[in-house]
Write a structure and sequence with these properties.
Elements (H helix, E strand, L loop, with lengths): L36 H19 L3 H6 L3 H6 L2 H12 L5 E12 L10 E10 L2 E12 L5 E8 L1
Antiparallel strand pairs: 1-2, 2-3, 3-4
Amino acid sequence: MHTPAPRTRSPRWWLAIAALAVLPSCLPATAAPATGPDAEKAALQAANSWLSLVDAGKYDESWSGAAKLFKGQVTKAQWKTAITAARKPLGAMKSRKLKGTHAKTALPGAPDGHYVVIQFDTAFAQKAAAVETITPMRDPDGEWRVSGYFIK
């Protein structure tokens, strides 16, 4: 993941938003688990909920429901422009199958934190075979929220 130069990248670049994390010591003791199968389950649930907003074209809501630092990297207007440019040519989502999940505490270009990199094999109306990579992170309040999204 890369840190963008202000407003000089193409709209598609914004789909690979860098995930920034907070120190685990800042998280509440009652928060969802940061590691292990329960963390991956919580991250997957967050990813599926967020993807349902994107699939429905509710891009403003997807930005509002994203990780705090995702929103710090891209404005709502920039996100809406980028996701519209990326998803509109693909058409409606037809099917999505979980390909794999990988818990990470470090990602290239992002500070250490709690992430789960999730990949889906996805079919769209105009693209039969795509791979969606979505990266939820554990936000400061302990909730898992999406910090990155990329379609290949």
